[in-house]
Amino acid sequence: KVKKMELIVGGAFQGQLEYAKKLHPECEWQDGASCSWEELCAAKGVYNFQEFIRRALKDERDVAELAKELLVCNGELLIVSDEVGYGVVPIDAFERRYRETVGRVCTELAAASSRVHRVICGIGTVIKDA
Fold first, then answer.
1. PANTHER family under this entry (predicted)?
2. CB within 8 A of 109, min separation 6: which ones?
3. Residue 1, pLDDT score
């Protein structure tokens, strides 16, 4: 079976990274809060992926094709991201755009991923296994 992208999502502080590390102890990780595009393309795994998106938006980069570009440069990436679309809708326009972008990018990546997990209270559930 060809290894494909895998996505692990959950709310803030729900234990996604710890869950991912137990599932994939061999994985070397990049931090989405600080890694470059080149590092992301070469990575085995990335955590804080939502922060990579935040930085891209703050740098005013075009993120419309981010999911497609990531699938081309690293179609076997293990991605850990916070779900940021729940709760009160932010007043700040940038925060609303950020929240929407994370949701849209993760939705595209989930569609392309072979497995998708959702983690709540440190407990992971496979929600897609293709």
1. BIFUNCTIONAL ADENOSYLCOBALAMIN BIOSYNTHESIS PROTEIN COBU, PTHR34848
2. 5, 7, 67, 70, 71, 79
3. 44
Domain that holds residue 32: 6-125
- Categorize the per-residue pLDDT at 74 as very low, low, confident or very high, splitting at 50, 70 and 90: very high
Q: What is the CATH number of the domain that holds 43?
A: 3.40.50.300
Query: How many whole angstroms separate alpha carbon 117 and alpha carbon 125?
Result: 5
CA distance 109 to 80: 11
Token pair of 24, please?
């994939």
In a domain, 130, yes or no: no
Whether 15 and 121 have beta carbons less than 8 Å apart is answered as yes
Total domains in the fold of the chain = 1
In contact, 45 and 77? CB cutoff 8 Å: yes
| Beta strand spans in 1-130 (E) | 6-10, 29-31, 45-47, 78-82, 115-120, 123-129
